[in-house]
TrEMBL record, chains A, B:
It comes from Kytococcus schroeteri. Residues 185-295 form the Alcohol dehydrogenase-like C-terminal domain. InterPro entries: ADH-like_C, ADH-like_N, ADH_Zn_CS, GroES-like_sf, NAD(P)-bd_dom_sf. This is IMP dehydrogenase. Its cofactor is Zn(2+). Belongs to the zinc-containing alcohol dehydrogenase family. Gene3D superfamilies: Medium-chain alcohol dehydrogenases, catalytic domain, NAD(P)-binding Rossmann-like Domain. Residues 25-136 form the Alcohol dehydrogenase-like N-terminal domain. The keyword Zinc applies. GO terms for molecular function: oxidoreductase activity; zinc ion binding. Keywords: Metal-binding, Oxidoreductase, Zinc. The lineage of its organism: Bacteria, Bacillati, Actinomycetota, Actinomycetes, Micrococcales. The keyword DNA repair does not apply.
Length: 350, 350
């Protein structure tokens, strides 16, 4: 089959690789219906994370079960969403809703704990370990699913669940004021999540007109283009000088985190989900103002069923973060578009 | 009157100072019935915080209202608890329960926002600004209150409210496992708070027998003496290898915070209240394991009525953290005893 391999910063290629097989009785093989490029894929692509040897890449996909091991209860042909890590569903962290800390789980595109390759998502098919725990089944949908719905289901693999995690950990309550730092797909899904939780005011920090438009469609009531001191000042002005009840940090840089913490009111909470790169948390400021920092790598599996159902019911259309669709053959172009911010998010179809 | 002045590290003196007066209509003058030395008073005493000029010290006291400004609704003779900061009670942060960020408030022992001195608590009397907002009235008690009850009421001024804040921000739920880092008065009150919130298991980290005894009396089910890697390992062993649901960090040093974060299970929360000194938060570890850090300088005023009522009802006896009582004249000795950890906490009586 064809699958994406990252060789070095800026060097992503679609290559011929072995077809995945069921290796363990808990495995399933899923034929990918759609996958995408994640903001976090850009860290190695941009050289921020070292690529020591060529490796498979991609961790967001939806597809159809093609083959199952003896212990897997999913039927062939079942449409599924794959969260961005695989997890057993039965250990203590999984049962407490932190599947990203699964005692048996791991990530896509590398070896599992027995040394067998787990394919990356940006390919034609994937061996899915711990399929019962990992996959979120979607009934009433097959590979011919309408593109809008497909896009929204695909966001449940990562960005929608991640935005939801930010809003959940920030503790957004009905009527509160929420600032969202970051206008990538996760930030936009954070806006949508804040709206779903009943936020009264949602301030999106964005300086890109197309992203601002999606933010407004998702529920942003205000947009702030300024950053740094001016950005903090702008948020203060919108909140009677006090800051926001909740802030969602959806970037991962030091500047974004500082922006987030400084935008929170005394006693407020920053829900953060951006992979940290160079963040030094200002503990004295946090302490003095009682600003909490909650979050981490999003256990999107925990939210799989609820978000799937909201999508299927038509309550939310997070798929609108996809502003480009490309064939898998053009995966290198998809990376370029994401890297240059020419696209918010690109869906890839094998 | 006599009041305590810190001149430099290690140099604390009881001196003659002017009697406090009502200056503003929102002031009250409170005659101190009891005060105490705080762990945070030891930071300047030990030279960790610079003392640039002699200044009043002490921020925990209970007493009796002696004089009131025209806007003050407290009656003369009213017994009151003074939280460790004064606050208006009416601004947005006060109304949201973060009185430590009061827009009109401040600390004891320095000038108010109009430049008038606010006395420190380790003295015979104190000018209390914003008395309506600041003071917690205690009915049915006067200056002749029995010593055990007096001690418990005095803890509502700081350590009990601070331990309660740690447990509250950590989000302790019924049946959960809680680790408490720090066996000072705040840590011990954290143990008590965890018990009040229904924790199923409370692991106190302490290597001092008298403090361990109080911790057990307050509800600790386990005591861990080890620190660092061994301490983390000991907590893991007590929790099936997983870590605690909630951790209360009641010290403020880097080692204590790291101990706390490493003791938490994936998805757990550290409630921290120790004044941070040299803490660098391990954001990558927090992110990977979804360990939240919540807390800050405790708005004990927010908890004043509830904790007062629990004390008056006899539900809790946090006053047991006081293992020494000294006359105010011996304030320098009280500092020495605290500094050398010869006493957990010293009550001072003018």
């Amino acid at each position: 089959m064809r699958a994406t391999v990252i060789h070095a910063a800026g060097d992503v290629r679609l290559e011929q690789v072995p077809d995945p097989q069921v290796v363990l009785p808990t495995d399933a093989v899923v034929r990918v219906v759609a996958s995408c490029v994640c903001g976090s894929d850009l860290w190695p692509y941009r050289g921020a994370n070292e690529v020591t040897e060529p490796r498979r890449i991609g961790h967001e996909f939806v597809g159809v079960v093609e083959e199952t091991g003896d212990d897997v209860q999913l039927r062939r042909g079942q449409f599924v969403v794959a969260p961005f890590v695989w997890s057993c569903g039965g250990c203590a962290p999984c049962r407490s809703g932190v599947q990203t800390s699964c005692e048996r789980g791991g990530g896509w595109g590398g070896p599992d704990r027995d040394g067998h390759l787990v394919d990356g998502g940006q390919g034609e098919a994937v061996r899915v370990p711990r399929a019962n725990g990992t996959l979120v089944p979607v009934d009433g949908v097959d590979e011919d699913v309408e593109e809008g719905l497909l896009k929204s289901l695909l966001t449940c693999s990562d960005v929608m669940g991640t935005g939801w995690h930010a809003a959940t950990r920030a503790g957004v309550q009905e009527g509160e004021t929420v600032v969202v730092v970051g206008d990538g797909a996760v930030g936009l899904c954070g806006v949508l999540s804040a709206r779903m939780k009943g936020a009264g005011r949602i301030i999106a920090m964005s300086r890109h007109a197309p992203r601002q438009a999606v933010a407004r469609e998702f529920g942003a009531t205000d947009v702030v283009e300024a950053r740094g001191d001016e950005g903090v000042q702008a948020v203060r002005e919108l909140t009677d000088g006090r800051g926001a009840d909740r802030v969602l940090e959806c970037v991962g840089t030091h500047d974004a985190m500082l922006q987030a913490i400084r935008s929170a009111r005394p006693g407020g909470t920053v829900g953060y989900v951006g992979v940290p790169h160079g963040i030094e948390l200002p503990i004295e400021l946090m302490f003095r103002r009682n600003v909490n920092v909650a979050g981490g790598v999003a256990p999107v599996r925990a939210y799989g069923e609820a978000l799937r159902d909201a999508v299927l019911a038509g309550d939310i259309e997070p798929g609108k973060v996809f502003d480009a669709v490309m064939p898998l053959d053009d995966v290198a172009e998809a990376y370029t578009a994401m890297d240059e911010r020419a696209a918010i998010k690109v869906m890839l179809r094998p």
